[in-house]
């Protein structure tokens, strides 16, 4: 039997009149009669007796009509419960993230995941080395650079290194221009410092500390110096700054990798497993 068959039986039991029920359910009376006949054939029994006053249910028909009411109630409750799952909080994920990843990438990840999963998030923003040390207190973390330890690491992004300046410059010009520094993790500092000393024999000139890399971009836009930084492929150059790729001794552009890490030994919740699967299928770099 179809759901519509159960609805017809339920309505006929409430109002035993074929004409009225056919009008209410938008059936022609012959179509409604045919459906009743099909139900009787399916159960090999008579369920309705017809008279000039309307229809009367047989004993078997009354039983079937009561079951129809129960079935429709069950289906309504089931559908409502299934809908409610979308609005019930399944739990909370404690995630760590570096500042730049939190600002430019993590919001989209959490937004898209939350459209399909009602999960609360607690986000801790720290330097990558601090997140690595605190990973036992987190479900997972997005960090810059590769760290060795009792963790699983999955590559999620790669960023290329550039020198940003207000106007077009040559590499040799850097020795006489102020370098604008910003807070970043030690592995990123090592990559940039190694590049500098591979190209120059002296310290950078008149270094300025800006706190955050996006503040450094603003200072570059004011022509206060240049900045060396890593940029994702979807970086939007709002200030129209000149971008010079930073190349190593082999002519390859410097790369910084971003990983999602989590503890090997810590128990994983079903929510975390689901989030990890989401990252693997929707986010993680192939």
From TrEMBL:
UniProt signal peptide: none
Q: Which InterPro entries match?
A: LysR_HTH_N (IPR000847), LysR_subst-bd (IPR005119), WH-like_DNA-bd_sf (IPR036388), WH_DNA-bd_sf (IPR036390)
Record SUPFAM superfamilies? Periplasmic binding protein-like II (SSF53850), Winged helix' DNA-binding domain (SSF46785)
Record's keyword annotation contains Transferase: no
Q: Does the keyword DNA-binding apply?
A: yes
A single GO molecular function term of this UniProt record: transcription cis-regulatory region binding
- HTH lysR-type domain: residues covered: 1-58
Q: Which UniProt keywords apply?
A: DNA-binding, Transcription, Transcription regulation
Highest rank taxon of the organism: Bacteria
Family to which the UniProt record says this protein belongs = Belongs to the LysR transcriptional regulatory family.
The name this protein goes by in its record: HTH lysR-type domain-containing protein
Q: Which organism is it from?
A: Fusobacterium nucleatum 13_3C
């Amino acid at each position: 039997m179809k759901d519509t068959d159960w609805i017809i039986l339920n309505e006929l039991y409430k109002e035993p009149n074929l004409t009225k029920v056919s009008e209410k359910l938008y059936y022609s009376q012959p179509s409604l009669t045919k459906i009743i006949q099909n139900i009787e054939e399916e159960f090999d029994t008579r369920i309705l007796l017809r008279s000039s006053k309307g229809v009367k249910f047989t004993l078997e028909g009354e039983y079937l009509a009561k079951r129809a009411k129960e079935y429709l109630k069950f289906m309504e409750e089931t559908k409502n419960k299934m809908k409610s799952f979308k609005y019930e909080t399944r739990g909370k994920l404690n995630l760590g993230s570096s500042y730049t990843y939190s600002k430019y990438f993590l919001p989209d990840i959490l937004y898209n995941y939350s459209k399909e999963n009602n999960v609360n998030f607690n986000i801790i923003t720290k330097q990558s080395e601090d997140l690595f040390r605190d990973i036992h207190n987190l479900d997972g973390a997005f960090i810059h650079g590769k760290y060795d330890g009792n963790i699983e690491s999955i590559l999620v992004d790669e960023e290329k290194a550039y020198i940003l300046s207000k106007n077009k410059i040559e590499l040799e010009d850097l020795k006489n221009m102020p370098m604008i520094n910003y807070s970043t993790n030690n592995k990123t500092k090592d990559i940039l410092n190694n590049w500098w000393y591979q190209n120059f024999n002296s310290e950078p000139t008149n270094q300025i500390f800006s706190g955050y890399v996006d503040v450094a971009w603003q200072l570059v836009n004011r022509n206060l110096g240049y900045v060396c930084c890593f940029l994702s492929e979807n970086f939007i150059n709002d200030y129209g700054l000149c971008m010079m790729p930073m190349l190593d001794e082999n002519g390859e552009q410097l790369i910084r990798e971003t990983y999602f890490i989590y503890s090997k030994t810590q128990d994983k919740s079903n929510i975390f497993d689901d989030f990890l699967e989401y990252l693997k299928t929707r986010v993680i770099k192939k």
